[in-house]
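2024-03-11 09:14:02 DEBUG pipeline.ingest accepted 1 chain
2024-03-11 09:14:02 DEBUG pipeline.ingest length=121
2024-03-11 09:14:03 DEBUG pipeline.predict start
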Amino acid sequence: MRKITAWSTENKVRFNEKKSKAMLISRRKLKELKYIQIYLNTKPLVQVTTMKCLGIIIDDKFKFTQHITYAANKCAKLIDSLLISAKIPWRLKHEALNTIYKGAILSLLLYGAPIWIEATK
């Protein structure tokens, strides 16, 4: 933390301790103390087990199961909306549905895939 504080002072950047969180990432299965106390600007940071970083939900075991569930639920809502719009009398044409699918659903599913793809195996 001293290096981060020194860097922020040198570059005139101030980190907000109210918005900052700490997370201990470990795949160890030993029953050990999993609580760490980190201070930023003399104030303790809240320790969390999951955090959203650049749109990807990361957990303390680096498994990404919560991110995959989140993305699947979001896509399910979009698919339901597409199904409803396909059933109404004026209907969307196949090409329009395909464009929406590729633009919205595939982009949601594939966002960050190089990072979390190993969690699906």
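2024-03-11 09:14:41 DEBUG pipeline.report Helices lie at 2-10, 65-87, 94-110, 113-116.
2024-03-11 09:14:41 DEBUG pipeline.predict end
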